[in-house]
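The aim of this short unit is practical: by the end, you should be able to scan a pair of folded records and say something sensible about each. We start with the first protein, listed as its amino acid sequence and then its structure tokens.
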Amino acid sequence: MIKKNVFLLPVYFLLFGACLTNSEKTEKDEEDTAMGDRITVTINTAAERKPISPYIYGVNEFVMNQNVTAFSVRQGGNRLTAYNWENNYSNAGSDWQHFSDDYLSTSRSPAAIAIKMAEDARRNGIPYMITTLQMAGYVSADGNRAVQESETAPSRRFKEVVFAKNAPFSDSPNLSDNYVFMDEYAHNLVIRLGSGVMHYNLDNEPALWPETHPRVHPQKTGALELVEKSAALAAAIKAVDPKAEIHGPSLYGIGAYNDLQSAPDWDGIKRAKNYDWFISYYLDEMAERSAKAGIRLLDSLDVHFYSEAKGECRITECNNASHTRCVNARVQASRTLWQQGYIEESWIGQWMRHTLPVINKLNQSIEKYYPGTKLSLTEYNMGGGSQISGAVAQADILGVFGKTGVYLATLWPLASNCEYQLAAINLFTNYDGNGSSFGDTHVVAELSDLEKAYAYASIMGSDESVVTIVVANKSLDSHHDMEINIESTVRYKTVTPYMISEGSHQIKKGEPLTVNGNSFVVRMPPLSVTQLVVK
């Protein structure tokens, strides 16, 4: 879930046109809107081909049943850290008065929340499912509401988590003992769902356990502690279900990627092998422990990313469409993930530049320390879910995930109204309402101006007969003419646009355009994003 800024920075902006009179500025705005700019996009259908994972088009469970076509779903968040699968009680931690209750499920049937998610996912045609395993040490014993500080674990209010039962499993777990077994949880899911159906997060945002769950894990999380728990829990689960994929360590953001939120043992560990950040140490240790165990204990490096970029305020906390600096920051924010040299206005841009661009840096650590590990973001958000800038930013980050090889990504909405973000997912997965989607193979799309627009292109497999292109106009007040040039041996004839623009989150089909010499021009209104289907 979203975290507060670690630092507050002064931000200074030069407001363009401040020296103009109101009438002069109005005339200039009208002229810009009327004339716009021409931006060139060059697509080469044979260059930079790489597969796009369908699982990047995912959501977290609580919006799965809304109007969205998703290909992956994740069950997670702070509530899952102290969830007891045997009786379905959980603890809210600092999110809500440290209550232990039946918020997640009133059912007393074992593993009820994971089973329900699987049933809902199958009904929605979602093939990939992740639930969260408990690793902090203790889970709720009861639903008797507030847990006092004097009842901090170990106490009667919690049961101890044990990774491996080392005894026969039961389909009906023993509710009278003081333990909850994680491998028995996986066993129950395999019996109910089948092997390799459910996949697993290694708990949730462990660097923040002392803040989110001080009744369960009051002490600061140690770097070695997290590695040892991750390896032991992963081994226990793989022994029960070798087909399951393990995603870890589900870090909340840059502060955790860097030093596990100033873990007490980090400085010594860092000096010992000169690690550049905690991510590298974690991957190195998981690779070594996997080699010793003879099985891969980490299938996917999992992190969370909530943009720290700022305009008038932090963009993930701004729902005011009139905050133009926030809107501008939002539609540029994905560049922090992939573009070398791009520096956002935030504490990250000022003090943490060694972590940028974020996805590139994560992939470098994977390649160096544990090759073959996939990359997942099981929580992310750029803000603006209820406005058009949210759709523009959401489509942008999905394009980034595709071209940088991210394996899985599940949006965590920050408000109940996130219709524009969900529409942007649909633009990739179901743009015509009949299941048509963006291609599964990335191809190169070069753009003349990244400040004003973006473009992503794809084909299906090696078939170039159809090219799908997602383009956006980032400008708040000017249209742009996007000149699309396609380098291919195929001669294209028509283009059908599907657009999301200001005023409605509905995807609207436009009039077909004609292609001449594999080139065409599409006029993009301010703050809009379009799927172009070229045949």
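Turning to the second protein, read its sequence before its tokens, just as you did above.
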Amino acid sequence: MKRSMKNAVLGTVLSASLCLAAMGPAGACEENGKWMSGDFHQHTLYTDGSTTFDFVMEKNNLYGLDWWANSEHGGSRNRDGNGTFWDTYNPNPIQGDVASSGGHQVMWRWQSLSDYVFPDILDTRTLYPKKRVFSGLEWNVPGHEHCSTAIVADDASAISAFEYQFDKSDTDKSRTGEVTSYGTLAKQNGRDALTQATKPLALDRHADAVAAGTWMQDQYAAGKIDNGWIIFAHIERAGVFKTGSSDGGYNVEHFRDFNNAAPDVCFGFEGAPGHQVNEFRGLGNTVSCDANGVCTSGDFGGTYGGVGYYTAQVGGLWDALLGEGRHWFNYANSDYHARYDNGGDDFYPGEYQKTWVYVKDTERNGKKFWSYLKDKHDDKYTLNEIADGLRSGNVFFAHGDLINYLEFEAKSNNREASMGGELKAHGNIRNLNLTIKFKSPKTNNCVADGTYITSCAAPVVDHIDLIAGEITGKIYPSSPDYTKNTNETTKVIATFTSKDWKKDRDGNNVINYKIKKLDKNTYYRLRGTNLAPNTADETDAAGNPLPDALVTTNTPEIPAAERAWNDLWFYSNPIFVYVD
């Protein structure tokens, strides 16, 4: 056999083997890649969670997550991951400035992250060798609400340095001036560097938050960390940004600032917050609705189908960012503190919400290599590859396993793009083909217990909306539109029901939709639900989600956990199509 023929056959065999190994939950063959489910916002006894570190790691594994991050508050705490007070250790291990809480000396999170949490993460990786566990932090952002962060590195020194310098709840000054691999440490956490008094101007605090993004971007660009992310959490909960002495939420210009300063690490937000068993599905503020169904609160009326206002409103803030062509993507997490049957508002990680990311196998033994060596992929998906997948935007999130597989692709002639990607046609498109493939499992994690949940149903998609908006170009800080948080061009352009999809041989539901002429730069995204249009208090006549507070107001007898299982949604990330 000629060498070229032999190599071709060998390559085919290797490719087929890899493809079989990378099958997703729908059984579809994804060459050199795999769909992996995860959660990057959860809490243990290390901070304000109610259960031990090991317990939470076990639940991540039990509910089938492929990857997760321990991402808990910065600042200081008085106990370890088992609930043992730090000052009862003998000898006392606490470093830094002395402070106390609840009658016990606290340990600053920069120390616990490095000296205690990271060793626990290493133990977890050994216990669950097929899972991928990240070292993260829920950053208390100067001037704003919280943020999920993570850093991929050989140790926790980088995430420790990040927390020490930039977390608004960390007032320790003991490391200031310390020379590290990441530069000389300095406090820039929305407080005066010497006194640690809060800076009076919210815009100054916001500037410190942007500086944190720049810091992580610089570490990533310099190769001092392998990877990292800054993804904003429960973004509507604190309402709009406040300019006075108290911190507020986020306006669209703040997301633009962060993305401008750190495009490789700051690339999205949690569109669907955790705490999905909260009375108002995740945001926790008191919401009231009038007779016309108008609901108000500090968080814009609560969630809509378990999804925050910034994401659920067609033509709203997320669409404003996408209309710039920004690679700004959407995720969901559990924000687990305590399960609903144990005094909390939460499902376990992976029990209800999942973020699915398409992960490409691009490394061998931890070393990147070029595409011509693709037959040497090791099929051992790494932390670095998962972080790259999150950054790519080839990601979707789903409630209650409404779907556990989604391909969304755009094709024109010989060009194509998936979620998060760009299709550049260099001229008007005569035929743009959009293909949607999805699958739902036969069952999900809903269990009728007669108390919190009286009945469960199989996850079945009722309809899928195809949403499109024009891409008009990046908006710069000098523009008066920099604070504009709407995109009036965004609309639902098609709605698909079961009569519009067919089964393929892998059991996927397949929708093919053709746009005959496209002469404007446009992005496309999807959302789907198990609810029919005009479902009382849940959807309007067009199938759009209504405020979740309506169900609480009008039918308070329905248990909160059951409300969540009855109201399932998924959201894709966008595909950007350019014609000029």
